[in-house]
Automatic annotation (TrEMBL):
InterPro entries: CheY-like_superfamily, Sig_transdc_resp-reg_receiver, ST_Response_Regulator. Transmembrane segments: none annotated. Residues 4-119 form the Response regulatory domain. This is Two-component system chemotaxis response regulator CheY. It holds the Pfam family Response_reg.
Length: 121
């Protein structure tokens, strides 16, 4: 059975890029969200195996959403996505419970490597 992934990013173009990388590598994208509060709702509804989460988003950022998702399920697997130069945010994300992070612009092999490592594949 394919691993089920939720993609969270405020940019439709980024969600499309990640979805493309994941589908080509045999993962199932079960949903998408464009901000942190949507991510929490979708997580509760879909219970994905893994979430890719942008850090900088309107409404609620990725780190706040990560903390809320961890309250719902302490074992939730979340990989944060950030642009270059956001090292401090990445450290915050890891401390909040993120399993890994990938840097934009995405390199397909790095995305798959982070997901496989996080899922233990």
């Amino acid at each position: 059975m394919a691993n089920r992934i939720l993609i969270v990013d405020d940019a439709a173009f980024m969600r499309m890029m990640i979805r493309d990388i994941l589908s080509k590598n045999g993962f199932e994208v079960v949903g998408e969200a464009q901000d942190g509060s949507q991510a929490i709702e979708k997580f509760k509804e879909l219970r994905p195996d893994l979430i890719t989460m942008d850090i900088t988003m309107p409404e609620m950022d990725g780190i706040a959403a990560l903390k809320e998702i961890k309250k719902v399920d302490a074992n939730a697997k979340v990989i944060m996505c950030s642009a270059m130069g956001q090292q401090a945010m990445v450290i915050d994300a890891i401390q909040a419970g993120a399993k890994d992070f990938i840097v934009k612009p995405f390199q397909a092999d790095r995305v798959i490597e982070a997901i496989n490592k996080t899922l233990g594949i």
